[in-house]
Amino acid sequence: DLREPRGHLNFDDVEFAYASGPQILPRFDLDIPAGQTIALVGSTGAGKSTLAKLISRFYDPSHGEVTLDGIDLRTLAPDDLRSAIVMVTQEAYLFSGTVADNIAIGRPEATRAEIVRAAKAVGAHEFIESLPHGYDTDVNKRGGRVSSGQRQLLSFARAFIADPAVLILDEATASLDIPSERAVQAALQTLLADRTAVIIAHRLSTVAIADRVLVMEKGHIVEDGTPDAL
Ligand code: ATP
Ligand code: MG
């Protein structure tokens, strides 16, 4: 039963290859205790996004299993999986609709008060209020008048309101100005509290706030330690 998932993730003897391609994850083992914040780093093609996609069940392993609180992800009901594990990717930051719609995408039944609370929690409320129609302002896919830092804050508000036990985040590579960077970092720390997080990290500041840094090369974890030690 996964009514209250704690967020303990485990990869046990996992193998994965894309159709008829080489093994991307050969014999992969990894344990992530509930509540831990992982920064995942490594060169391009190392398998970071593939790992993230196995956790969010975008793909299933060809061998071995990925478990959440000891339960094979493949045996979880789709609704349980969707509410327990949320993946925030760079591509999915915004869709056409209002700011409020964009925040509530994972929880369409959310009230306006809940939407505002999520926006406040991640420090997005002020800029939203400054938009022409506030929470009812339309944004297009590219964000229109919303900056890339603000876009990230909106995606954090979306994840905050979904409140998953496990958050997977593929961090944006776009560099931000210093005030935006600070705002995004502060929002991230709020978002990470009380949940398991795996962040494909592109910022040193993100690596610094992680409990544990994993360096991945060619489908293997080659370093595993605290930010200080690495
Ligand atoms: P980056 O830092 O560039 O995002 P990554 O660590 O996320 O890299 P992955 O995207 O997981 O790397 O890719 C791992 C390997 O799998 C690479 O060799 C890549 O070419 C291959 N790969 C990724 N997606 C697919 C796919 N859909 N079909 C076939 N091969 C793929
Ligand atoms: Mg990637």
Automatic annotation (TrEMBL):
The lineage of its organism: Bacteria, Bacillati, Actinomycetota, Actinomycetes, Micrococcales. Residues 9-230 form the ABC transporter domain. This is ABC transporter. It is found in: Cell membrane. GO terms for biological process: oligopeptide export from mitochondrion. Belongs to the ABC transporter superfamily. Lipid exporter (TC 3.A.1.106) family. The keyword Transport applies. GO terms for cellular component: plasma membrane. It comes from the Bacteria. Keywords: ATP-binding, Cell membrane, Membrane, Nucleotide-binding, Transmembrane, Transmembrane helix, Transport. GO terms for molecular function: ABC-type oligopeptide transporter activity; ATP binding; ATP hydrolysis activity.
